[in-house]
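To: structure desk
From: M.T.
Subject: fold request, one chain
Message: Could you run this one when you get a chance? Sequence is below, nothing fancy, just the single chain.
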Amino acid sequence: MKCVVKAAAGSGHLALVNRPVPEPGAHEVLIKVHALAICGTDVHIAEWSQFASDRMKPPMIIGHEFSGEVAAKGALVTQLAIGDTVSAETHIVCHTCEACRRNDFHVCSHTETIGLSRDGALAEYIVIPAENAIRFNKTLSWETLSLMEPYIAAVHAATAFPAAGNSAAVIGCGPIGAMAVGVLKQCGAANVIVVEPNEARLKKGGEMGADHLVNPVGIDLARAIRTVNEDRPVDVVFDFSGNVDAIEQSLSYIRPGGRLSVLGLSDHLLKLRLDRFVYNGLTLQGIAGRRLYGDWETGRGLLRAGLRLDPIITHVLPMENYQKGINLMKTGQCCKCVLKIE
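Reply: Done. Structure tokens follow.
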């Protein structure tokens, strides 16, 4: 089979190679991959950032956001059939650590990640545990179905706190932030305000249903937020940027008793005025991955209710153009680039 491998440590070292088709174990399925969405993690792997070097041991197949169909299954797999349309939960959990025993599978202490700590899906075939294969009705394109893993992370973030009837500020409108805008509107948020300095990403927030778009550069952001929210602070802030300054600034436009849901990542220190945080009764929630598997069920329901994700896909390329896709993601020239694997 054709696959893209991180062949060695260091920047670059990606190669399109041939490997044998893997065989599923008793509790596993073999998936024929039809589409793979390029993620920021793939950029980290290509550039060999600290994040990647701490987690990956080359050689390894990259890629983890994908869709496909079940091509073969192990002898003990009963919940899936040959030909089923699937996407995948990319975090493989141990089921034995304390977090797993408390049903907090999304923060499992021994999580393996497809395409990072084990072979990934930028390949014609991939083997994964059957429990990680999530079945979908084939009413969506393979390209849209490849977005399910980041989409369900957006579902986790956007449903961490009640949305219906509330006002929300969304900081950062990359692919996950843009999908969260759609989730919030589908869940009945009264006013969704996107805060984003990149004009292309700001526009994408509008395409996903945001009520107001605010470029924070050179303005009094707290005043601007109030201006488009009936002169009131917002009820909830959702951060997808990882910009600690922006998160700190959000305290100036969130109401007392408000809530902050943070999915964006950064290695910078977050500094909050503790007295302001405590006296205003604020809640800060970190969002790690997806709650297994409730967020997947919620996400499927929102799609059945009419949520559209196709505006997120701006580029579709053949598998062989993987390097171009990674460059598009690295330079911010795409929202989501999907590789077709045929």
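Reply (cont.): The chain has a mean pLDDT of 96. Let me know if you need anything else for the meeting.
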